[in-house]
C-alpha cells in the first residue's frame, strides 16, 4: 500500500509540475502580448501626433 501511495504522490507531483509549467508559459505569453500592445499603442500615438502637425 505504501508503494501505491508513493506512486500516486509522484503522479500528483508530475501533474503539479505540468500545471505550473503551463501556467508559467501562459503568463509569459500574456506578458509578451501586453508589451507588444503597449509598444504598438506608443507607435500609434506618435503617428497620430505627426499626422496632427
UniProtKB/TrEMBL annotation:
It comes from the Eukaryota. This is Uncharacterized protein. It comes from Vanilla planifolia.
Amino acid at each position: 500500500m505504501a508503494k501505491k501511495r508513493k506512486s500516486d504522490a509522484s503522479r500528483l507531483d508530475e501533474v503539479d509540475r505540468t500545471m505550473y509549467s503551463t501556467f508559467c508559459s501562459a503568463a509569459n505569453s500574456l506578458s509578451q502580448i501586453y508589451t507588444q500592445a503597449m509598444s504598438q499603442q506608443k507607435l500609434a500615438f506618435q503617428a497620430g501626433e505627426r499626422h496632427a502637425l
